[in-house]
Amino acid sequence: MHTFPFLCSLLLCNGVMVAAQRKIQKLPDEEEESPARIRTPQTLSRGWGDDIEWVQTYEEGLARSKHSKKPLMVIHHLEECPYSQALRKAFSSSPEIQQMAQEDFIMLNLVHSSSDDNMAPDGHYVPRILFVDPSLTVRADLTGKYGNRMYTYEPGDILTLIENMRQAKLLLHTEL
């Protein structure tokens, strides 16, 4: 008869001890998650900027561009391409690019080719970035530094990309 209360007391003490140990040690898989840790990055960003609102398809981007009167910025890249990875790192670490992308553009990044031939005016290489104005015209005048790959940018070309983003915004306002 005395065994049952003794076992209950023992189990209660054991439970208290385990709880105290977990609280002291803060075991990683049993830690309470803070709101910052719960936030999952937007999967459509693919590392180009988790705070940017990305559209899923080229067609959606065109429709939203036309409706919002903001230019569409299309980034063609491949996940495993070292040039794409380097540009993605430079793009995502530039506060100015991130801010303009969030506020002034409809953003799309594609890891596959678009069915629109206008999205590959000089070939299907990666990475390449093209701008489309709200009238649904590909901006052939906004190019990078290279004659053989007119719409490519390298990490060292971030200032050129920033200038092209500014031009896309300025011309947008003067055309409308």
Structural class: mainly alpha
Strands in their spatial order, largest beta sheet: 2-1-3
Number of strands: 3
Characterize the overall form.
globular
**Relative strand content:** 5-15%
Query: Helical element count?
Result: 6
* Unreliable runs: 27-42
What is the N-to-C order of secondary-structure elements (H for helix, E for strand)? Answer: HHHEHHEEH
Kindly provide the radius of gyration, computed on alpha-carbon positions and rounded to a whole number of angstroms: 25 Å
Q: State the end-to-end distance.
A: 89 Å
Q: Percent range for helical residues?
A: 40-55%
Largest sheet: 3 strands, mixed
Blueprint of the fold:
Blueprint: H1 3-25, H2 35-38, H3 58-68, E1 72-76, H4 82-92, H5 95-104, E2 106-110, E3 128-132, H6 158-175
Parallel strand pairs: 1-2
Antiparallel strand pairs: 1-3
What does this structure look like?
With 176 residues, the protein is mostly helical. The protein is 44% helix and 9% strand. The protein has helices at 3-25, 35-38, 58-68, 82-92, 95-104, 158-175, and strands spanning 72-76, 106-110, 128-132. Strands 2-1-3 form a 3-stranded mixed β-sheet. Helix 5 runs parallel beside helix 6 (158-175). The radius of gyration is 25 Å and the shape is globular. The termini are far apart. The model is unreliable at 27-42 (pLDDT under 50).
